[in-house]
Amino acid sequence: EAVVALAVAFETLLTDAYAPGVSARIQRRVRICLRRKHGIEDYLAAVVSVMEARGAIVHNGSTLREAEVIKAQAAFALCFEAVAHLPHVGTSLDQPIGAMLGD
Fold this sequence. Notes:
The protein is an all-alpha fold.
């Protein structure tokens, strides 16, 4: 449950609407959010492990993959902080999160 919930949290925070390429978009936007942080690759690897485990759980009913939940939770907190501190860009945009992140 924690893996699926965390993956959904990343999707909710870093995507504007469902569209193909969600995993690549989340990875790209995690990089944007963490661009000034140390250990970006470790955080990104943890997020990828959670996204892959979530995919296995949702599509196969279970996973044998090990997910780095604690590190991914830290990445989520840092991404949330980054998004919360971005300037508000209004509500008329089709892709407000993408616009705020410059993606």
